[in-house]
Design brief:
By secondary structure, this protein is α/β, with parallel strands linked by helices. The chain contains 5 helices and 4 strands, in the order αβαβαβααβ. Strand 2 (53-62), helix 3 (75-94) and strand 3 (100-105) form a beta-alpha-beta unit. Helix 2 (28-49) runs parallel beside helix 3 (75-94). The mean pLDDT is 96.
Length: 155
């Protein structure tokens, strides 16, 4: 992608899958899938993007609430979200050319819950969620994990 686009001002990743599972039930495959997909997929994006983002540009990855507020039965996902947050804090210290590296930690998105016929209580709309990503683009912070609840209104 970067070979085709050249230099960019910012990169945002909201990609990555992870699996749920209880401590005694999650398999090695569940953990490795989560590590290789959600964690290393975004880590590798940052590693590559840093060479293509303009000076003073921004790289933002997506973690999730479970990294700081785990739920029962979600061990692999909680682990990779917390690891990604640690990576962002450390990588920001090493970033050069003023490149800022941050993460957004969303809660469940209302539109997704609606599409999945789930309860929308405690969710946040995509528009409200996007405010945290916008803050990463426009702000001057680096090494931060932005909780979307600080930027938008939950349903």
């Amino acid at each position: 992608m970067f070979e085709k686009t050249g230099s960019i001002d910012a990169a945002i990743s909201a990609a990555g899958l992870s699996r749920f599972g209880k401590l005694g039930e999650a398999s090695d495959d569940d953990f490795m899938f989560s590590i290789n997909n959600k964690l290393m997929g975004q880590v590798n994006l940052v590693r590559i993007a840093q060479h293509h983002v303009s000076p003073n540009g921004s790289i933002t990855v997506t973690t999730g609430l479970l990294g700081r507020e785990p739920w029962p039965g979600k061990v692999p996902t909680a682990m990779v979200n917390a690891a990604l947050e640690g990576f962002v804090r450390a990588a920001a210290l090493d970033a050069s050319n003023g490149i800022r590296i941050n993460a957004v930690s969303p809660i469940f998105v209302t539109e997704t819950a609606t599409k999945m016929s789930m309860d929308k209580a405690g969710t946040m709309s995509a528009i409200e969620t996007a405010k945290a990503y916008q803050s990463c683009l426009a702000g001057d912070m680096t090494g931060q994990v932005l909780d979307v609840r600080d930027y938008g209104k939950a349903e």
